[in-house]
Design a protein that fits this description.
It is a single chain. With 129 residues, the chain is an alpha/beta fold. It contains five helices and five strands; from the N terminus they run βαβαβααβαβ. The chain has one domain: 3-Layer(aba) Sandwich (Hypothetical Protein Ychn, Chain: A), CATH 3.40.1260.10. It has a five-stranded parallel beta sheet with strand order 4-3-2-1-5, sandwiched between helices. Helix 1 packs parallel to helix 2.
């Protein structure tokens, strides 16, 4: 079986990138493959905001990423540079920058492109959405 690293560059809403990435990830896992991590990059970091509140009749892709990560113990990694420039702030970043609020769910960790490259080295394939 293959080992994948998934890169999500599309936002949670407004494009199909995140939902497509989620569906691919679920299918890969159900097919017996391993997912090393999901790396949220560029506008993909908008998938990690706790402040996104879709209507009750809409698909909550952010919640689905969190459930998937919990079920399969998959790291969800936010590109810290992309996140900060888009106002996506973790609790740790908020403390370091003396901010009173943060909006990144605890299900996601902040990391750099180095973590993405390391993940690529341990994976058989990198799939980008």
């Amino acid at each position: 079986m293959s080992k994948f690293i998934i890169q999500v560059s599309g936002p949670a809403y407004g494009t199909s990138a995140s939902v497509s990435a989620l569906r691919f990830t679920k299918a890969a896992l159900n097919g017996g493959h391993q997912v090393v991590c999901v790396f949220f990059y560029q506008d993909g970091v908008y998938n990690t905001s706790e402040f996104a509140l879709p209507a009750s009749d809409e698909f909550d892709v952010i919640q689905q990423w969190k459930l998937l990560a919990e079920q399969y113990q998959i790291p969800l990694v936010n590109c810290v540079s992309a996140a900060l420039r888009r106002g996506i702030i973790s609790e740790q970043e908020a403390r370091e920058h003396a901010l009173h609020h943060w909006n990144v769910s605890n299900a996601f960790t902040m990391g750099g492109l180095g973590e993405f490259v390391t993940g690529m080295e341990s994976a058989d394939r990198t799939i980008c959405f």
